[in-house]
User: Fold this.
Amino acid sequence: MYFKFLLRCATGLACALALAPTLVAQKSGGGEYAAVLIPDSLKSGSVAVYRKNNYTYSIADDGTYQLEREFVVTVLEPEGAHFANLEVVYDTYQQISQVGIRTYDSLGVADEKVARGNILDVAYYTSATDFIKGARIKYFKTEYPTYPYTVEIKYTEKVATGFLAKPYFPFPGEKVSLQSSVCKVSYPRGAGFRYKAYGEFAEPTQTQTEDRVELLWTLQGRRPVLYEPFTLAPWPHVRFAIDEFSFEGYRGSQKSWADFGRWIWDITKDRLTLTPNETIRAQSIASQYITVPEKVSALYQAMQTDCRYVYVGYGIGGFQPLEASYVSQNRFGDCKALTNYLQALCLAVGIEAYSCVIHAGDDDFVIDTSFVATQFNHVVLCVPNGGDTLWFENTSKDLPPGYLGSFTENRYGVLCTPNGGKLVRTPVTSADRNQDLLKVRVQLSVNGDAEVETRLQSRGYTYTDYLMQLAQANTQERDKFLADFLGDLPNYTLKDFDASKIKTRQLEGALTLRLATQGLANKAANRLVLKPNVVNRRTYLPEELPQRKTDFHFQHPLTEIDTVQIVLPDEFYLKSAPAPLVIEADFAQYEASFHYQTDTRTLTYVRRLVWKKSVHPAAEWASFRTFYKQVIDADNTKVVLMPAT
Amino acid sequence: MTAGFCIRRVGAIVVGLLLVVAGGRAQSLQPEPKPAVWGEYSEAELAMTRYEKDTNAHAVFLYDYGKMNVVFSTQSTILIQVHRRIKFLDDVALADLGILREGGAKFDLSLQRFEAKVVNVVNGEVMVTDLGKESLVREKFTNNVVVYKASFPELKAGSILEYRYQKEIGIGNVLSLPPWVFQHDYPVLFSHWEGKVAGEFELRIIPEGLPLSFQKAVNGNPVGSNNIYDFVLHHIPAFYEEPMVVGIDNYRSKLNILFIKLNNAGTVLKFFGTWPDLASAMGEGLETLLVGSSIKKKTKELIGDQIDKMKIISSLINFVSVHVKWDNEYVPLSSVSPSNGLEGKGLSSGLKNLLLLSMLRAADIKAHPVLIRLRQNGPLNTSYPVPYQLNHLIVAVEQEDGYLFLDATHPYHPPLELPLESMGSAGVLLDLSNKTYQIVGLPQPAKTTFNLSLTGKLSLDSARATGTFSTRIQGVYANTMRRLIAQDSAKSAIQEFVFDGDTTLQFSDYTVEGLEDPAVPLLISGKFSVPVQLEELEGEFYFTPTLLKTHAKNPFTSSVRLLPVTYNFMRLQNYTAILELPEGYSLVAPLRTKTIVMDEDKSMMFKRIGQQQERNIFFTTSLGYNKLVFLPEEYPDLKSFFDYVAQLQAEQFVIRPN
Assistant:
């Protein structure tokens, strides 16, 4: 009876991932993968070593292809264990077959092959808002009791998307070295095949037969790739594309961005039809306004109110949006569907609008405009408006109309029009549009405790990404926000919290707090030691990278202006205020000044930090880091309060 | 896909008139807690913009109803009806509650009579969007699990979502029925669970979680040939997860539903209604797994001519823990033979211990399996005998004065000591030979003492303290460290446990003593170098003498606490720093000795001593955790205690040239 119960449990939904299969080991043969055979140079600084990491592509005329994957990874430390897992997402267009997994102990002696039934095959979701995803994942978590151990994984992918989007990534992550990697690509002659390597790759060897070409990349004995923060260079990989393709009967071309954008337009154009009622409603809304920006903003806000983001992945592997009528009936959709719906609303009122495919988020990913191929994960709407272009991020219920925010601004995208695609840039933001104005008033007591009043007024992305979350926060979420915002305060008790000036769909708002804090000033002998920058100290120090190779950029311009007034207790006085400080760099400017007014016993500290959007050569990394270090030191400036008697 | 719904206008209200003003502040009209009638909505429900008992709640469950109907027949199934009405107070809950997902085993789950309504007030008019069963999507989740899904249209802030469906599952599920959960992540205005169960079944209802007052509690009244269960609760607060709680889900208020037995015309089929019944079922067939010639042979090989019982035990547990692979899964039982572990195959935690049990029995040592609940999952609810409370198995060896408990899961753990995760709760001991079963208490973790002493010199030039350290650790920390050190992770174990994860402190040339014998303290000593928070201000140097960041910040930041704070074990942490000042410098004033105690029982205690002797500064702190559970009403005191500790830890020494 009990075992039947266990079986039921094993089939239970909640158990599905927890029951990720583990290994059963039975010795046979081996030796090739003994850990001792790994050169010391590859083990040093590595948590795992890829003994092999092979990709073999066989491409058909229409761009569909088969990819045979084989990788053998020796895990040296627990931190590297996840590299030995199988995690392959697949769907109707990417089928997985011939999966094989085998483990080896530290001596390279093979265990029994993992049974196919032990490999989990489960519907794949990444968010609570995924409704119809159509994707599944084959998953196997390797567990091994001792280190090092080795796992060999093979599988074949048959990909029918025609885009040939899956690149060759020989380095799967940081702290991983590579003993050997081979990438073979076989494609038909004259197929318009292209590739581009990013990182240190030699040119591939090329062999040709009458009808096919084969490219071969071979890498041997590579030390781990070091991730370089703020980089403009992509992680080492080789990207592939084929000029002409066919995808579910839709023939397309990606010879140029014009062709690529036209293909998107072609698969989208028939989905812009609204129901008559919805058209009338759109016209009714728009008729209340005069200008194009007003009309589109009103339609956008109506959509924000009525619709919500839900991923529904129907339509050519998720490339084709749901019909506008589907969204108007259901009031939900994903980024494509919501953008398509707003586009349809615009068209219904005679306003020209186009979808723009884009790579959202991920500051370190910059699309390569010189290599035409899909590099996108998101869609926004562009309204040309006679040159005074408007942009709309359609998955947010909170952003103000015409504002993209840090998720999609300041990057390239491809506008999809009936006349073809057009490479465009989304708006560039600047430091004066993104501001944090912080005012703090501190009434210090004789034992170092204090009453603190603070007001943070934010504008731009610093408001929409950070402060605006308080507009709809519950108590727990509010407390978490405050723990972060007031993290520099040792201990505090909230006395008053006013977020009434924080609203959604605005670009600016203010938070006012009143709190009591213990130990704001530290006791030291008979003095008090105090950091005038009470709540806004920078702590992040970029790592030292003396061998940095890639250029870097600073993506998010911002102005911070803090004014802190500290009223001292009668029993203490400030002997001398710190000298003013200015730190200049071409990417940022920092100023701090201190003024003590004896009669009011008030120390006023003013801090101004401006980050500019900028791009820098790798050689300037050390000075970039020095600036951060100087700012951290300056933010931690202390003053000593001496006893009055 | 076509969406099966239509939108209807069903009436009109004037929302603006439904706001009342109380005390100068507009209050949202509040619906009364009462059963929902399908498709009928009160003006208060429609107009509600805030739930006054939790004004920041993103949504409120206006009505949460479940009914279980169990009929006795040869084709018995369990029918579960669900009817829920949710008011969305802002946009935030849309992502969480906007898609219904109901999953279960492919072979015995059927979802029927699904219908839903989304209700909005648009320009004073009540608009209802109806959905039918055609809106349901059935998806294969795994080979054995299916999920029914529906995404609700027209859902937005202010909407009311109402849905109901009937779920039919196989009668076999009486053994693993999910509880009725009163407390969700959102407040619930009215929660109602009913059961109508054929009289042939005996059922027990076991409330669990934070105590709540029932408005109605009918527990098994016979009506006709059925027994009736009926529980109603009003105004149930949202369940918010909070840190530092062991077994947090045990605190969520719910009704556990336990089928005890089936009485069919005098023939009684027992389920898991009592621990003996459950133990009997779990022990069934276990005996046959515990025999095997390979086990006997290996046991003989390991113990040779040894006759000392404790030496035999040590030898066997050492073998199983170190040489038999653990597959990193905590599973109490399975149908696999533990002898597979002798062939190099990985075993689950339970199987490793069954192998140990088999070997002990092969060596003529009386031992029994004990089913337990891992410590991190919270204590075993002894009034609730269900299998899924038990997720691990250990071994009890009979002693003259009780039992010696053994756990061979982890390699290199001190063999006769239980690891922390197996300690402290109760277990179900299965005496397979005598077919008797008993609840046994497991050893509690002893109070751990931890002493760290840093002796060195303070350099003003480099702003570092450099010298030697020595640590003396006893109890749980020591055993965990012994295990990690034996697994070749000494460096990271010392960084984590000795230096509190502070990676700015560098250490070298360390030695470890007391690794083998858990009865003696673990001693670790070596050299260290650590940056000191040191600043020159107006010709004097200010520095924080704690050297480590321990207790520098209060771990409790939230303003309110609903769940108890629970610690895993009691402990005393002592830190001492002895620093030699640079020549020519002296202390302006020593730090005063301070002692803080949290209450009369000294549940928490902190003491700091700071003094100077010639050029040496002595700085000592002691922090004692003398209680394991702090109730929510004690939270303000606990928070204040750590506030004060952090404040004292931040006090600084001042030194200046002589």
Chain A touches chain B through 79 residues (CB under 8 Å).
